[in-house]
Structure prediction request, 203 residues.
Amino acid sequence: MHIRDHREHSSNMNIKISSLYRQDFSVFLLSLLVPLAVICCITNYIQLAVAETQDSINSNNQTSLLGQLVYEVHGKIVGQREVGVRGPDGTFKVEVSYTGTGSFKGVNVTEMWTFLNTHRPDGVIQGVGHGTVTTKDHSEIANAEGYGRGHLEAGGKIKYPTVQLYSTNSTGKVSFLKTFIGLSKWQVDDKAKSYTYKMWELN
Prediction:
C-alpha cells in the first residue's frame, strides 16, 4: 500500500510539474508573439497609409485614412554612431539622435528623438525610435514612439515613412496627445545633418 501511495504521489507531482512547465512556456511564447504581432500590424498600417498618402492627398490635406495635416518639423541631427557588429550579409545598425522645432496643432513645441535604424543590404532602412515633445515654456511634455521604414534615394536623402504614437499626462495644451497616432513622412539629409517631416493624424 505504501509503495502504491508513493507511486501515485510521484505521478501527481510529475503531472503538476509538467503543467507548470507548460504554463511557463505558454507565457514565454506570448511574451514573444505579442510584440511581433504589434510590429506586423504597424508595418501593414504604414504600407497602407503611405500608399494612400502618395496617391490621393487632396488640397485639404485629407484622405479617407489620413486626417488633417497637424504637425510640421525642421531640425538637426545631433548625434550619429554605428552600434553593434555588422552582420555577415552587410546589415548594420546606426543610432541617430534628432532635435527640432515645429507647430503641433498650433502649439509651438520642441522635439527630441533617438532612433535605432537597421540598414539592410537591399537599401531598406528600418528603425524604432523613442522621443519627447515639449512645449516651448517646458511646462508640458509628451512621450513618443516611432516605427519607420524607408530607403536611401539617389541624391543621398533618406525618405522615411513613420508611424508615431504619443502619450502624456498633460491636461493642458498637449493633452490631445494622450492617445494620438500619426503618420509622418520624414526626409533626412545626412550630408547637411538636417531633417524635416510632416505628420497627419490617422482617422
